[in-house]
Design goal:
This protein is about 30% helix and about 30% strand. The chain is built from 4 helices and 7 strands. A 7-stranded mixed beta sheet has the order 1-2-3-4-5-7-6, with helices on both faces.
């Protein structure tokens, strides 16, 4: 059974999973890895989800404030043995719920064109391509996405 922990970037299980992600990305990104790595530091990420199966950390993701109404999805990773089982979609859903609870209206993200599984994940979960933003503008190996969030209504607002 999957369980999800809301934490921050100081949690050791998150740090361990991100280290494994960085090893994979170094291979995928090749010579461009240093460019992308500079935008993926975890020291200022306050909203992290770690997914566990039978107390084993198997996946993670994070959101980081991008603007007054947008969160940026960062550091999505699932251990290879657990891929293709919907775990990443569940982590993404948990992140979206958290962002909506904090009254953010949308999530955005960047992924690499050399990561077709990630691109499929985001499209499958309702993310739409947008022009590359910020530091990714003009970077041909980046692909940016955005998703409008359903706002969470407080219990008092329900009639």
């Amino acid at each position: 059974m999957l369980t999800f922990l809301r934490t921050n970037s100081t949690h050791q299980d998150f740090i361990t999973l991100v280290h494994q992600l960085d090893v994979e990305l170094a291979t995928i990104d090749g010579d461009e890895h240093d460019f992308y790595a500079q935008y993926n530091k975890i020291d200022k990420i306050n909203h992290v989800i770690v997914a566990y199966e039978n107390e084993l950390p198997i996946a993670c993701g994070a959101i980081k404030q991008f603007s007054g109404n947008a969160m940026e999805v960062k550091r999505m990773y699932t251990l290879a043995l657990y891929r293709g089982k919907g775990v990443a979609s569940q982590v993404l859903t948990e992140l979206e719920k958290w962002a909506a609870e904090m009254n953010y209206s949308h999530c955005m993200l960047e992924t690499g064109v050399r990561q077709p599984d990630a691109i499929r994940l985001y499209k499958k979960n309702g993310y739409l391509p947008i022009p590359n933003y910020g530091q990714y503008a003009g970077v041909e190996n980046s692909w940016c996405f955005e998703k409008k969030l359903h706002q969470v209504k407080s219990p008092e607002a329900v009639c």
